Amino acid sequence: MTLVRLLVPVDTFGVEPEEGAPAPDRVISGDPRFRTWNVEEAEGGLYSGLWEASPGKWRIEYDEWEFCHILSGRSVISGDDGETRTVAAGDAFVIRPGFKGTWEVLETTRKEYVIKA
C-alpha cells in the first residue's frame, strides 16, 4: 500500500460535512448546529475527523471514548458531578464512556476528534 493511502489528512478538503444538531429534547439554550467532516471510519467502531458547533447549550451523554483537540472557539463542558472546564484552541482532552453533563458553545468551536465506540 502506498503512503497516500495510509496517510489520511484530517481536514475538510474534498469531504462534504454532515449537518446536524442535538436532539431537541437535549437543547437547553440557543440553537446549536453541528457540521461534521468524518475523514476516517475503521472496523471496530473507530472514527476520526473534524466537528464544529455554533453557540448553544445541550445535554451530553457519552457511551464511547473520545479524544478531542480544540482548534478554535471556546466552550464550557460541565459534568453532572458539578465539575466545569472551559476549553479553547490548543486544549486536548479525553471524554470517557459514562460522562454525563452539558456542552455549551460560547464561540463557534471546531475540534479534531478520534472516537472509539
UniProtKB/TrEMBL annotation:
Domain (S)-ureidoglycine aminohydrolase cupin positions: 41-113
Designated name of the protein: Cupin
Pfam families to which the protein is assigned, alphabetical: Cupin_3
InterPro entries the UniProt entry points to: RmlC-like_jellyroll, RmlC_Cupin_sf, UGlyAH_Cupin_dom
